[in-house]
Amino acid sequence: MSITSFAFAGFAALLAVVYRVLPQRVRWWALLAASVIFYAAGGPAAAAYMAVTAVTTYFAALLLQRENDRRAAMDGEQRRSSKRSHDRRRHLVTGAACAVNFGMLFAIKYWDFVSESLAFLRLPALGLVVPMGISFYIFQSIGYVADVSRGKTAAERSFPRYLLFVCFFPQMVQGPIDRFEHLAPQLFAGRRPDTDEVRDGIQLMMWGYFKKLVIASRAGTVVGAVYANAGAYPGCASVFAVLMYTIELYCDFSGGIDIVRGTAGLFGINMAENFRRPIFSLSLAEFWRRWHMTLGGWMRDYVFYPLSLSKPFAALGRFSRKHLSGKLGRILPTSLATFIVYFIIGIWHGANLTFLAYGLYNGAIITSSILLAPFYTRVKKALKVNESGGLYRAFCIVRTSLVVFVGRYLTRAPWLKMSLVMLKRSVFDLRLRELPGVVTGLGMSFFDLALVAAGCAVVLAAEYIEERGVGIRAYLAKRGAFVQWLAIAVPLAVILIFGVISAGSGAGEFIYGRI
Amino acid sequence: MDELIGILQSVCPGVDFETEKDLVEDGILTSLDIVMIVSELMSAYDVQIDVDDLVPENFASAETICELVNRAREK
Asked: Is the ipTM of this complex over 0.95?
């Protein structure tokens, strides 16, 4: 069931009504039943993968909790002397949970890519279908296991309650990757949302549907056509297609997350924020702190920190401090850990050389910016750059947007070679005068183009206002009921006219839903 | 404390460690800064800081970082 379908809207509305009328203590059962039905509709294989993750991480967390409780009962001296064996047992259980779940993810998502790439090894292809949301719920569940291991979260004793945390239906499409301590108490509380929360949830859903159905699905219509036959088009077509893809991707992913968070709002549940206006990022590193924030946070807490403080990296740190002079010697291990994290983020997005290249691209730029920071500081000082000035900030935003834009060449093409050919043509064979003919030839009408441009202007304006510290929904909440419901009715009319009756392509699918 | 602030400022030159009280929540310190600070502290004071200690509360201000170092010394 696509979250852009009328069936989903009906499903969510019916569940919201049932949720309100049920007694508080059984409301979470309604969410669990709905989530199981929602996910089981994806087929028995998808349900089986989900069951493996839920069962293994549930028992791993219980074992870790028992280990932590045992240690907590010890006196100070015992605790100090048993630290090493305690850590070993914790790492063993956490490692086993990771091995099972990441092994399963590898088999489903990456095995065929490996067997194809290493054809000389004659490894058999598995041909497994990647089920909806598997990367998201596995990461969320492993994050929970790691938190229990660190004593940050207490293990959940009830399996049905834990299952709800793993498979809560709105997050099944494309995240966000939430934390147990943030999401679980809200799921189990069964709190009845007040009218304001329901209205806010509907407004957020409308905003998401607007971005997805009116902008993303329309911008995406030309992208596939250019990528299907990139060699036949001049460079301007590549630039136009990648620009449309960049718009499509942002409105598709952030719009989908708005729908998901708005749906959760119908049950009084505030899911983790996943976007914080990435268009206003001053650097690529900041872009990744504002784009897909829950993945970035996951990578920070469960990969970057442990890797940076691991024994091999500590040894590398000692070596680099001893043998390399100045700042380079101090930051080399951190830079290497940063590079590895962005490399992993790249391949998390998909099993393809294009994503490997995307990870390397991001890792190389961010790592070089760390290593070259002292040089940049000297240049800015020599040029007397005012770093807090509007002009410099605008320059940084444009520079970051360009870097992100170039990166987008890598993520959409089916083959890396095609990405590079398109990039080359965009620079050396632009033929800008042919652009109007190219756009018309791709089947994008002036009306559609104008609608995408107008939609982007609305999104940009709204994000600019919020970036200035004005909360639009908080502002609307202070107005009268008429204005508040108008803020739902007008977007609804726009969505129905320009997103449903006159829809673009691929309205039912999400790009990140395939990850 | 002066020595600690000197170390912190050598890692993050533009940050006012003497007055800022919410370095992480206010977005002044990034995860990268935190790891570089921790590496520097472990080297300077010969202490072991665990990954479990890398939580925003421990890096909110120079005082909380100082407490973190003191706890690591006691381990």
From this structure: no
